[in-house]
Specification:
It holds the Pfam family Por_Secre_tail. Keywords: Signal. It is elongated and about 90 Å long. Helices cover 12% and strands 47% of the residues. It has two domains: 36 residues, no CATH class; 77 residues, Sandwich (Immunoglobulin-like), CATH 2.60.40. The chain contains one helix and eleven strands. A hairpin with a 2-residue loop joins strand 10 and strand 11. The strands form three sheets. A four-stranded antiparallel beta sheet has the order 1-2-3-4, with no helix packed on it. It has a four-stranded antiparallel beta sheet with strand order 8-7-10-11, with no helix packed on it. Strands 5-6-9 form a three-stranded antiparallel beta sheet, with no helix packed on it.
């Protein structure tokens, strides 16, 4: 007899626990009811839960989760406002990348992409004045990205003529 009471109590506890774990805290929604039934909807669930005459219940919906993540960086971009000159533009063979006098021997690199976003060329910028040999590129438009410690600090549109 004790085991039946114990088992019944455990079953009741697990049922209550299960119902409790299935609850939602919603940020908004609407509900309407009349003598014929009720309908309710909530933000996050779509489209509604409907019950008519208390006899039938039709539940429809799915939760639409959205994840927003932000990546914070500990890397300090020391030369964030550095002046960079890119010339000539349009170019035929070479592009000069010249840093202002505030240039410090930090780790700078460049990447050149086509307009479809494919990486074409990448390399390092080690001097105040750098010359990029781009004579092998086809005629067209490209994106030149300047990075410091792997973080983009400037982006330029360059044109090969």
């Amino acid at each position: 007899m004790k085991s039946k009471i114990y088992f019944s109590g455990l079953l009741l506890f697990s049922f209550i626990w299960n119902v409790k774990s299935q609850s939602l805290t919603l940020s908004g929604g609407e509900s309407e009811s009349s003598s014929g039934g009720s309908i309710s909807s909530s933000i996050g669930l779509s489209p509604a839960t409907v019950a008519w005459n208390g006899s039938y219940t039709v539940s429809s919906g799915s939760q639409q989760p959205y994840e927003i993540s932000m990546h914070l960086s500990v890397v300090d971009i020391k030369n964030k406002n550095i002046d960079i000159k890119i010339y000539p533009n349009p170019f035929s063979e070479n592009v000069s990348v010249k840093f202002s006098q505030d240039y410090k021997k930090e780790k700078y690199d460049y990447r050149i992409f086509d307009l479809n976003g494919r990486l074409i060329i990448k390399g390092e910028l080690r001097e105040t004045a750098n010359i990029l040999n781009l004579q092998n590129l086809s005629i067209g438009n490209y994106i030149l990205e300047i990075n410091q410690f792997g973080i983009t600090i400037n982006t330029y549109k360059i044109i090969k003529k």
